[in-house]
Amino acid sequence: MLRAVCILVAAGFFFLQSIASQTLEPSKPATSADALTNPAYSPGVSLLFDLEAKFAADTAKGGGAAFAKWFADDAVTLSNGQAPVVGKAAIAADTKWSSADYQLTWKPDGGRMSPAGDMGFTWGHYEGHFKQKDGTPGVTSGRYMTVWKKQADGSWKVALDASNNEPPKKEDCCKLP
Fold this sequence. Notes:
The chain starts with a helix and ends in a 12-residue tail after the last strand. The model is unreliable at 1-30 (pLDDT under 50). The protein has a six-stranded mixed sheet with strand order 2-1-6-5-4-3, with helices on both faces. By secondary structure, the protein is α+β, with helices and mostly antiparallel strands. It contains four helices and six strands, in the order αααββαββββ. The longest helix has 27 residues, at 43-69. The chain has a single domain (2-166), classed as Nuclear Transport Factor 2, Chain: A (Roll), CATH 3.10.450.
């Protein structure tokens, strides 16, 4: 499993290097609407933003089960402080939340499409809303990156989903007791 993750990370590195010269993001964070109206975005990036919007809408309605359906059979998830989850079946077993208990939302800030148009990635901000054990509202938030890959049947699936928590606020950093 570790070897598969290392290979995927290495492949991602080379993929990122191959398209690093493409500047598709504006100087400010994008919205899904920007991808459709901003000429700085290619049709490929617009496609990725559309996929993200559908992925997020399905997840908002169907929770973890709907989230897992978007993944390729050999996909990987990387979450802050957790071991990699490899394979669609393992991802589905790890994402059993209901949309009533946990509301996960996200929006891409940018993206890239490979020159061949068969693989791309988006990144942006996510938020998860839930009730804590004492009933008070809780929020988790951070940054994410989704790697999309075109399948043999022409559909698009998530090959890699990685996320990390927001960094601590400046006022919370480096406080001495």
